[in-house]
Amino acid sequence: MSVNVYFADMRAGERENLFDKIGRLLHCCGLKERIAPGDLTAVKMHFGEKGNHAFVRPVFIRRVVEELKGRGARPFLTDSSTLYPGSRKEAVSGLANAVENGFAYAVVGAPLIMCDGLRGHTAVDVPIGGELLRTVSIGAEIVEADALVVVSHFKCHELTGFGGALKNLGMGCASRSGKLQQHSTVAPEVAGERCNGCGICLGACAHGAIAVRGGKSRISPEACVGCGRCISVCPQKAVQVRWDQDAPLVMKKMCEFALGAVQGKQGKTLCLNFITQVSPACDCYGHADAPIVNDIGICASTDPVALDQACADLVNAAPGNRNTALKSGFEPGGDKFRGVWPDIDWEIQLEHGEKIGLGTRNYALERL
């Protein structure tokens, strides 16, 4: 049985602008049936790292908030702390960064609350009975919320091929210990012939796992937590992951954490993916490289697996942009995600999400 995924393109005019389309998408997904008056509703999103600009625009989030308030709900915007050093490493820095990136109450109309507390440790162990995990550590405010609206920027990702609703749920709703558990199998290694000992990776590591010896960087497997931060900051592309084992496990664990994030809210969850500024890497970096395809539109569904599958198909159906990080798959139908990260089998997250009952890859695209 297929699940409806609703799609609005980027066209706008006097009769209907893009904000109106966001409202229609939410109502097509059953906003009135899924969100009740008085519901404390978590709007899970990515506040964007300082210096990044590809995250979902605050003015679009405001329309989501307005629609929820129109239903009588009480929405709040939420994100979680990160494993790596940066502007979102704990709640004080993370919320200040969110305001600087435009998510102030005066703009979005909702309060900001970190879902995992001051330092990322405020969490609830949620039983799931997954294939790999029996319990997952989810930010307490996600668990405590009555309803959940997941707003994701759909883009490429260096560990999972792409990042969408599944990653926003699985990685983004996890506590610090949950993130560590998901990344624990990611053990980067340094290709010595490429490394010039510049030391940039040292500054990106929050765990003292990297040292430069003999003019080459060395990573301690014992100290490494697998956050993957060093992989993309290396200008020589010398830091690499052993993808044959690590990436599939990350994606599978991520999906099982996503299952925990929606536990008890299967009838109270809505998901929106913005296929805009499709950057080659995560919004966790302090920059956003040129988009690999032009802006496509916004998709919405109650099923995060179907939603991500539809968005991946839409991106791959688009012509790729030259003079970007995209190296292959430029033709419509070409694999854009492998065109940026050739060693990642991004479909694993979709396959596993379907396998554990998180959703289905079988969808019907309904165009607004």
What does this structure look like?
The structure is a single chain. By secondary structure, the chain is an alpha/beta fold. The chain folds into two domains: 306 residues, Rossmann fold, CATH 3.40.50.11440; 52 residues, 2-Layer Sandwich (Alpha-Beta Plaits). 31% of the residues lie in helices and 20% in strands. Strands 4-3-2-7-14-15-1-16 form an eight-stranded mixed sheet, sandwiched between helices. Strand 8 and strand 9 form a beta hairpin. The longest helix is centred in the C-terminal third of the chain and has 16 residues. The two termini are 21 Å apart. The mean pLDDT is 93.
What labels describe this entry?
14 helices; Rossmann fold; two-stranded antiparallel sheet; Alpha-Beta Plaits; 368 residues; globular; alpha/beta; eight-stranded mixed β-sheet
Topology:
Blueprint: E1 3-9, H1 18-28, H2 31-34, E2 40-44, H3 58-70, E3 74-79, H4 91-100, H5 105-108, E4 112-114, E5 123-127, E6 135-139, H6 140-144, E7 147-153, E8 155-157, E9 161-163, H7 165-170, H8 176-183, E10 189-190, H9 200-204, E11 210-213, E12 216-219, H10 229-233, E13 239-240, H11 246-261, E14 269-275, E15 297-301, H12 304-317, H13 336-340, H14 347-355, E16 363-367
Helix share, percent: 25-40%
CATH architecture of the largest domain: 3-Layer(aba) Sandwich
Oligomer: single chain
Name given to the CATH homologous superfamily of the largest domain: LarA, N-terminal domain
CATH topology of the largest domain: Rossmann fold
Q: How many H/I helices?
A: 14
Number of strands: 16
Largest sheet: 8 strands, mixed
Parts with pLDDT < 50 across at least 5 consecutive residues: none
The total domain count is 2
Major sheet: arrangement of strands: 4-3-2-7-14-15-1-16
Structural category is alpha/beta
The termini sit apart by: 21 Å
Instruction: Give the overall silhouette.
Output: globular
- The CATH class label of the largest domain is Alpha Beta
